[in-house]
Amino acid sequence: MKVPHLGNGNTYIVPPQRNRPTARPPRWIIILLCLVSVCLIGAYIYPPGQYPACYFFSSSVCSPIKYWLPPIARELTDDEFASRVVIKNILSMPLVWPKHPKIAFMFLTPGSLPFEKLWETFFLGHEGRFSIYVHASREKPVHMSPLFVGRDIRSAKVVWGKISMVEAEKRLLANALQDSDNQHFVLLSDSCVPLHNFDYVYNYLMGTNVSYIDTFWDPGPHGNARYTEHMLPEIEEKDFRKGKKDISVFL
């Protein structure tokens, strides 16, 4: 179409207007949104059976979505690990005597056990009635007996007479408590050796319901004189005693 241009005799052509189609979202986006909406509505109306009180949109009760995600893999601290053991393996377990009670032998050693072969002779033939846990504070032990292979727990440096010894003992006990069949917990050092056969030790400990802890008052410089105020408020001076770390605890 020719239209006269004002001011001179020239003309120019104005192209006709075209109706552009309205932009539409891709069809796959619409289908995806529909599927997500159906899943959300289904999760709201029919929550998972193992969480009957949970609703997807109610985070005040619980959040079922956290059970759909993979757990975060990280190493627990000693306190977190001990707390989980107490809640999961002690408080949540029924007070029933196990059918096959065991003794947990917990070795606190700086490295390899010098009497490992002797302990192997002590344990052989009594599988299912004992558990072994090794805390090596200085170097990774080289095991000579297959009974000790794979029994090392996460360890840390231990200084004699320091709180690190208590932390190592707690670490051993927390690992042993994961097995509900463990009823007696015997703490040993690398220099300990068995003086009786396994049946004698097993029957003696299982026949009693007491713990054996050697503590005594020692007024000397290597005894109660080691008490410091840094132990407060957990330990008062009147309760401080010297003792051996080789103990047997019944739980």
UniProtKB/TrEMBL annotation:
Topology with respect to the bilayer: Single-pass type II membrane protein
UniProt GO MF annotations: glycosyltransferase activity
Alphabetical keyword list: Glycoprotein, Glycosyltransferase, Membrane, Transferase, Transmembrane, Transmembrane helix
Transmembrane segments: 28-46
Subcellular location: Membrane
Signal as UniProt keyword: no
InterPro entries in the cross-refs: BC10-like (IPR044174), Glyco_trans_14 (IPR003406)
Keyword Cytoplasm among record annotations: no
Gene Ontology CC: membrane
Protein name as annotated: Uncharacterized protein
